[in-house]
Design goal:
Layout lengths: L2 H7 L4 E7 L4 E9 L5 E2 L2 E4 L4 H21 L5 E8 L8 H13 L4 E2 L8 H8 L19 H20 L8 E5 L3 H13 L2 E5 L3 H11 L2 E2 L12 E4 L18 E2 L10 H10 L2 E2 L2 H4 L2 H8 L6 H9 L1 H15 L3 H19 L15
Parallel strand pairs: 3-5, 3-6, 4-5, 7-8, 7-10, 8-9, 10-11, 11-12
Antiparallel strand pairs: 1-2, 2-5
Length: about 375
């Protein structure tokens, strides 16, 4: 892998390798862009097949966070960390304390949070060494479990998508096929049920499905049958890449809006949805409630303020559709363009030299 060529092609700012022999820490911090503010992105711990795979994952995920934070209207850039190791067997206190010291050494350029393979407890250990971490225990001023907030943001985004697809943002009487009924999706189902939507659900966890049936009167189907059901809205809320060559011909939904990450297996599938007239809601715009919520912790968490910000996902999703129509491009490209335009506007307005920039972190 030609690292500098890769970084130049996608305009990365910084790639850091962090090693601590005593604890076994092997971490890679990628900072993609800090035009809007310090880079925010979680710490992932994974058993990568190679160091090159770990580097590539960190870079890819950091760029994704730049776009997610920009599209959410946050004054934050994008970054990500990967720690090489088995999260089930190789964690120790010293590892996360050492990592916290590396973050502190960046002096606020990068702020981390929980991600795949890490926990709130791990963030608490990092917090022992640095303030540049969010998603810590409520005792330290955290907002707690972000799932309900993410779900509310997806609900707001789905209403905006319904307005685009059906001319009204009311979900009453609409049939929504929800793939996956985990923490986020279950709360989403509650919002939909309370508005009067009819739910069709599936999940590999049969207990989760039964709970949705019992509480919301949902109709249960087998996992492979969810794509072909008669519905108005398809809500992918489980694994990524469920919108692909096999599933698109089955889909009867006019609107796709869900919580899952990386819903398109390939960008060509976004092009195909556009050609078919399906209203696809880009995942990193609609599921940004969690990152909006943790970003509020940087100012001393205020739930009311955070929820008002999450409500703006409706406007962000609507803006994506406007750009899609304006430029006659698929919505996944419109979302990228919305993020890029915001970054470029700020880049032009920040041409003045500052000896000491504004310090975003105010939590004590």
């Amino acid at each position: 892998m030609q690292i500098f060529n890769y970084m130049k092609e996608y305009d990365y700012e910084q790639l850091l390798f962090c090693q601590d022999e005593q604890s076994g820490l092997k971490a890679i911090i990628a900072i993609h862009d800090t035009t809007l503010g310090p880079a925010l992105g979680g710490t992932r711990m994974w058993t990568y097949a190679s160091e090159e795979d770990a580097i590539e994952d960190a870079l890819r995920l950091a760029k994704g966070m730049t776009y997610k934070n920009a599209a959410a209207g946050l004054n934050l850039g994008g970054g990500k960390t990967v720690i090489i190791g088995d999260p089930k067997t190789e964690k120790n206190e010293e590892m996360f304390r050492a990592f916290g010291r590396f973050i502190q050494g960046l002096n606020g350029r990068y702020i981390t949070a929980e991600d795949v393979g890490t926990t709130v407890q791990d963030m608490d250990l990092i917090h022992e060494e640095t303030d540049y971490v969010t998603g810590i225990s409520p005792a330290f001023g955290s907002s707690g479990n972000p799932s309900p907030v993410t779900a509310y943001g997806v609900y707001r985004g789905m209403k905006a998508a319904a307005k685009e697809g059906f001319g009204s943002d009311s979900l009453e009487g609409k049939t929504v096929a929800v793939q996956g009924v985990g923490n986020v999706a279950f709360t989403l189902c509650r919002h939909l049920h309370e508005e009067g939507a009819h739910l069709i659900v599936t999940d590999i966890n049969k207990e989760a499905v039964q709970r949705a049936v019992d509480e919301f009167g949902a109709e249960a189907v087998e996992t492979d049958d969810i794509y072909g059901v008669d519905c108005d809205i398809y809500a992918p809320c489980a694994l990524g890449a469920t919108i692909n060559d096999e599933t698109i011909p089955q889909l009867k939904a006019k609107v796709i809006a869900g919580a899952a990450n990386n819903q398109l297996k390939d960008t060509s599938h976004g092009d195909l949805l556009h050609e078919k007239g399906v209203v696809y809601t880009p995942d990193y715009v609609i599921n940004a409630g969690g990152v909006i919520n943790v970003a509020d912790e940087l100012h001393g968490y205020n739930k009311e303020r955070a929820m008002k910000r999450v409500e703006t996902i409706y406007d962000n999703v609507s803006r994506v559709f406007e750009i899609s129509r304006r430029d006659n491009i698929p919505t996944y490209r419109a979302a990228d363009r919305m993020a890029e335009e915001r970054i470029e506007r700020l880049r032009r307005s920040r041409s003045q030299f500052l000896q000491n920039g504004h310090h975003i972190l105010s939590r004590k």
